[in-house]
Amino acid sequence: MNCTRSALRLHQSLGLRALPLRGSVVSFARFNSTSSPSSPSPKIIEYDSPLRKAVTGLKIFSVGSLGLTAAITPIFIMMESTGAQMVMIGTAFTVSALNTLMVTYLTSPYVIRARTILSPSSSSEGRQIEFTTLSLIGTKKTATFPAKVLMETDEYDSTDSRFLSNVTVQKELKGEYEGVKTDFFVHKDQKGEGIDAIWAAVREEGKVSERLV
Asked: Where are the transmembrane segments (predicted)?
């Protein structure tokens, strides 16, 4: 009994607390009064394009029609076709291919979803923007940039950015993002926290085209 009391006093002096177990056996666990504070997570503001479903559907329809045309073209070629029929088959395939390329060109800068990532106040890092667009076959592609490398442009200014894009990586910095999509279109006529966060980040940390000043 005296041994047990001595052990209790010894562990209490070392910052331990006793956890009684069944019977006369006593277990000791160190009492930790402080816990390491978790680092604050960044705030994320999301934006969804108002035409997201329409653009996605158009893309899928365009690619699907081209695939169907390409699949049935060899069947007609192997059949006994006259010269006029061959011309019609070739014309149909060409029109379908051109339609798909046109849709791809016009919709590839279109941002269907974006996220503005705000660093905690204790961090020296600026805001970042994550853009989600559609690839040639309609799959989602995501690219993230610091707001400070972006520039707001005139959507019809072909000298600074791609046709129908109004957010782009600054011209002198595009070499650092080789192989990554750098031209995007985001609606300016929309209202909401998501769209406001994007334009605030670009205008405050990035640049604005001289045509818009």
From this structure: 60-79, 85-106
